Amino acid sequence: MAESPLLDPPPSLCDLAADGPLALFLDFDGTLVEIAATPDGIAVPDRLGDRLFALAGRLEGRLALVSGRAIPDLERHLGPLRVARAGSHGAARERADGSLLGALAEALPQAAIDGLRNFAAAHGFALEEKQHGAALHYRARPELEPHGVRFAEDLARSHALEVKRGKSVIELVRPGASKAGAVRAFLQEPPFAGARPVFIGDDITDEDGFAAAAEAGGFGILVGDRRPTAARYQLADPAAVHDWLGLQGGNFPGGVSLVQ
């Protein structure tokens, strides 16, 4: 017998929006697209960027992507972004018009990047280099995890960095980079200010986003079945997320207005 869902599914988006202004914060990998063996191996649904822009319009602009990927990497897969976005686990933040929100994020020290690069090459990890971080991937070789964690933690201490954990990934980032920080920053200004935040994500780093949404009167929606979680509701997979958001083919680009 299949295991029962950890949490109830969320109320419909229209029902939630009927209670007042709603702001959506969406993770990317594992939430809007299925996780792949490599970061470049994802299959992005046709015109997903356009569909997200249409949904943002129904919310008067209150939609933001909040991803561990760098913003240019998101654009490489989605095309030019016309919604608010935060990349590199919230370290880099841009409004929908492309203007910077907050301070310019710093890249990692070159010595840290070199250390990760040499370690990955020597031990069989796949290295993903980003604008403001770098990550060791080991989905194809899960037995590498303990060695990678030890190395990353030692390297982080040496360069005053932080380690972020995810599904078969170990990442180094600058201190303070978090999806919670991105949510809080967007909620401080229009069009997000005063809206009830809903954060949708699947991974450990999304727990910060769930917590930030809850502290502002909203909640999180977990994608998949990872335990424990601070999310209030649950959706099974990215296909269920698309259905709940009204991003499926038949619902694009119209749909019922979400603005009362």
Structural description of this entry:
The protein has 260 residues and is an alpha/beta fold. The protein has 2 domains: 13-104 and 178-251, HAD superfamily/HAD-like (Rossmann fold); 110-173, Alpha-Beta Plaits. The chain has 8 helices and 11 strands. The protein has helices at residues 13-17, 48-58, 71-78, 110-123, 145-159, 179-187, 206-215, 238-245; strands spanning 22-26, 63-66, 84-87, 92-94, 126-129, 133-137, 162-166, 169-173, 196-201, 219-223, 233-235. It has a 7-stranded mixed beta sheet with strand order 4-3-2-1-9-10-11, sandwiched between helices. The chain has a 4-stranded antiparallel beta sheet with strand order 5-6-8-7, covered by helices on one side. The radius of gyration is 18 Å and the shape is globular. Residues 250-255 have low confidence and may be disordered.
